[in-house]
Amino acid sequence: MLGDRVLFLDGEALVIDKPAGLPVDRPRDGATSLENHLASLTFGFRRWPVAVHRLDRDTSGCLLLSRNPKAHARFQQAFEAGALRKRYVAVLDGVPREASGTIDLPLGKVSSAERGWRMTRDPRGKSARTDWRVIGDHAGRALVEFLPATGRTHQIRVHALEGLGAAVTGDPVYGTAHPGGMMLHAIALTVPRPGKDDVTAQAPWPERFTALGFDGDA
């Protein structure tokens, strides 16, 4: 159940700490997804909440859901306008040569029968920009903060690999799978609301990061 993973709740918004391994959309194989938990996240409302954005199946952390259609439309507008602030942390299979910077690599989708679909650098693709900084390193890996200015599919995962030269640890598509899972976590989210307090949430530090030697001091 996800009722004990609520980070923010009011009449318009619900933010949960989505566990790694739970897809937001129902997968083709019919496996359990967020939809299977929505009935337990109504908190007195008849209407089920609706996810405003997506997190990859293996990414954990802050996921915003709307509690009514008008709020949903406003939140979507905020996402499209880039008005919200998202903060991710990731463990990378390598240590970047610089301490911080901005990755500006447009992304496009490619697919093949052998590897399936994936995103990659594409000068003709959609613009994608991510600010980043190294927080720490341990045993040949780096803990990196990512602040995406755009919200492209797999943006952080591809920017880590193609922009910094180091895949997210455990990334099954762009790197190498890891027994602990993929080390990408949406740790904080802020959504401004004109005339109201911001929607703000911070997710707990993931245990799988701690197991790799990175504690929650980020």
TrEMBL record:
Gene3D superfamilies associated with the record: Pseudouridine synthase
Entry keyword annotation includes Isomerase: yes
Pfam family name, one: PseudoU_synth_2
PROSITE patterns assigned to the protein according to its UniProt record, in alphabetical order: PSI_RLU (PS01129)
Annotated ranges, domain Pseudouridine synthase RsuA/RluA-like: 14-160
Key words of the record: Isomerase
GO molecular function: catalytic activity, acting on RNA; pseudouridine synthase activity; RNA binding
Biological processes, Gene Ontology terms: enzyme-directed rRNA pseudouridine synthesis
Sequence similarity: Belongs to the pseudouridine synthase RluA family.
Family matches, as PANTHER family: MITOCHONDRIAL RNA PSEUDOURIDINE SYNTHASE (PTHR21600), RIBOSOMAL LARGE SUBUNIT PSEUDOURIDINE SYNTHASE D (PTHR21600:SF44)
Protein name: RNA pseudouridine synthase
Annotated organism of origin: Sphingomonas ginsenosidimutans
